[in-house]
Design goal:
15 helices, SLC35_F1/F2/F6, transmembrane transporter activity, UCP036436, signal, single chain, two-stranded antiparallel sheet, 372 residues, mainly alpha
């Protein structure tokens, strides 16, 4: 069936805003400006403040939800159905996971390239699959286990590409290794978030935009308050600000004042995550969760290509191999091979649990990003 103009618009919006989300965060990291008190010019390394901005973007999804609800009431539309009452605190544990995982990924983005960051996020498949078996009593299909193994191989190849690539003074080898490991650690937390949402949240039939908005509210409020103690917690060489603290929000604001383009990058990050979540949810509804996964994979290509074009990283052939293997792992885990097999053999029928297989990853959001 041919796509309508609206469906093409949603797919394009998801691809563009998803790419902008990662690229704008990396763009902000590349800026140098003086901080407060006449400090010397230094890189804008404020991952926790950037995470606060990301949650602000998610929080804005609540506004989109209520606008859709008002429109549905006026038009007697059933797109936003009346939902059962629920306790908003159900979203607190997933929000805490989202906050921790997102913060770790923003820290890692300061240490590694944007393309590796996006590729390594594919590790979430491994931990989501294992946790769904352990805590949700799911039974993975053989193709899903093969997808998990392929993802592991792809991660190893991408890691080797990072080790063998040329590194500049901004991204030393030790920092790249640390950043890659932090990204993988963050995917464990993201997988826990997905399992918690599946077990406790989805059964209440909460609209996805509302769920994203509530988690964004919790993440924004909690992390904003945590910026105060972070201002006094020493972090040594792990910190990127002159005072050597875990996070120096005042230094960030001074840098933004001296280099307005940083504000533009932060605004791009905040707005893109809001539109990306809206577009992702709409693509799942109008098209399918499978289409959403394909578009999410395509944005990795866009990020990689633009990073190379902008000179943010150097090309290494192993990245192509690693991305291809990761793509195959994602396709196998999410059942994207089923349509191909169906075309080759009309007598083949997909297994009955496909709807469950797509729920955990296909119909979920990424935290830089997706988060996301």
């Amino acid at each position: 069936m041919a796509w309508t103009k609206y469906q093409l618009f949603l797919a394009g919006l998801m691809l563009v805003t998803g790419s902008i989300n990662t690229l704008s965060a990396k763009w902000a990291d590349n800026f140098k400006a003086e901080g407060c008190g006449g400090s010397t010019e230094h890189n804008f390394e404020h991952p926790f403040l950037q995470a606060v901005g990301m949650f602000l973007g998610e929080f804005s999804c609540l506004a989109a939800f209520y606008l859709l609800q008002c429109r549905a009431r006026r038009q007697s539309d059933s797109n936003v159905e009346p939902q059962q009452s629920f306790n908003a605190l159900l979203f607190l544990p997933p929000a805490l996971c989202d906050m921790t995982g997102t913060s770790l990924m923003y820290v890692a983005l300061n240490m590694t390239s944007a393309s590796s960051f996006q590729m390594l996020r594919g590790a979430v498949i491994i931990f989501t699959g294992l946790f769904s078996v352990a805590f949700l009593n799911r039974r993975l299909a053989p193709s899903q286990w093969v997808g998990i193994l392929a993802t592991i191989v792809g991660l190893v190849v991408v890691g080797l590409a990072d080790l063998l690539s040329k590194h500049d003074s901004q991204h030393k080898l030790s920092e790249v290794i640390t950043g890659d490991l932090l990204i993988i650690m963050a995917q464990i937390i993201v997988a826990i978030q997905m399992v918690l949402e599946e077990k406790f949240v989805y059964k209440h039939n909460v609209h996805p935009l509302r769920a994203v908005g509530i988690e964004g509210f919790f993440g924004f409020m909690i992390l904003s308050l945590l910026l105060v103690p972070m201002y006094y917690i020493p972090a040594g060489s792990f910190s990127g600000n002159p005072r050597g603290m875990l996070e120096d929000a005042l230094d960030a604001f001074c840098q933004v004042a001296r280099q307005p383009l940083i504000a533009l990058a932060l605004l791009g990050n905040i707005s893109s995550i809001a539109f990306f979540n809206f577009a992702g949810i709409s693509v799942t509804k109008e098209l399918s969760a499978t289409t959403r996964m394909v578009l999410d994979s395509l944005r990795t290509v866009v990020i990689w290509a633009l990073s190379l074009a902008l000179g943010w990283e150097t090309f290494h052939p192993l990245q192509i191999l690693g991305f291809f293997i990761l793509l195959m792992g994602t396709a196998l885990y999410n059942g994207l091979h089923h349509p191909l097999l169906a075309c080759l053999s009309r007598s083949w029928h997909p297994p009955a649990q496909d709807g469950e297989q797509e729920r955990l990853l296909g119909d979920s959001r990424t935290p830089i990003n997706d988060a996301s």
